[in-house]
Amino acid sequence: MQLLGSTTSPFVRRIRIWALLNHCELEFINLDIFAAHDRQLMIKNNPARKVPVLICKQHTLADSNNIIRFLLELYNHPRLSWQQEHLLSTINGCNDSLVELLLCQRSGFDTTQDKLFFNLQNERIAETLSYLNNHLADAEFKSCEYLCISLYCLLDWICFRELTDLTAHTELMEFYHSFAQQQAVQQTDPRN
Ligand SMILES: N[C@@H](CCC(=O)N[C@@H](CS)C(=O)NCC(=O)O)C(=O)O
């Protein structure tokens, strides 16, 4: 199986860490998705023009949510419960808004301006981080490996890109530091 992605994408990193922790052999194809040649490979496999993309004998699958569902089934792991899916959507909502804002900044917009689009993203980021901080101790959260991986990838990406101050979220910070010790985390560090 091949995984098209980039080392910096938090959505790609989730899949890479899960695969490392679960002895799932993935050939990681590291792309610069904004460079012409690499972009062609991504576009050829995903009309939505995003990474990650998983390519295997049966399927070409885009979107980390589909990829993890496929891998969990393939490796006979239980699927996420509905509450866990809800928590994953909360992590995704935060991550998507941060990606949108970063792309706006890279397009030359001042995202601190009082504009509907920026306000909606900023409100979503603040609310989802508070929600995750308050629900991190829930049994359904702590017991789900993929949720913990996805949260860690979000938090580390926020730190890596210096996107927002996390220090007020004490539960998230404690989790972030404890999860960071794992080998799979260090092996997929975008700073390396
Ligand atoms: N819902 C998607 C989001 C993936 C995503 O946003 N990927 C970013 C990289 S972090 C991307 O490919 N962005 C390219 C673009 O927006 O043009 C998933 O879970 O895989």
From TrEMBL:
<protein>
    <recommendedName>
        <fullName>GST N-terminal domain-containing protein</fullName>
    </recommendedName>
</protein>
<dbReference type="InterPro" id="IPR036249">
    <property type="entry name" value="Thioredoxin-like_sf"/>
</dbReference>
<dbReference type="InterPro" id="IPR036282">
    <property type="entry name" value="Glutathione-S-Trfase_C_sf"/>
</dbReference>
<feature type="domain" description="GST N-terminal">
    <location>
        <begin position="1"/>
        <end position="79"/>
    </location>
</feature>
<dbReference type="Pfam" id="PF13417">
    <property type="entry name" value="GST_N_3"/>
</dbReference>
<dbReference type="InterPro" id="IPR004045">
    <property type="entry name" value="Glutathione_S-Trfase_N"/>
</dbReference>
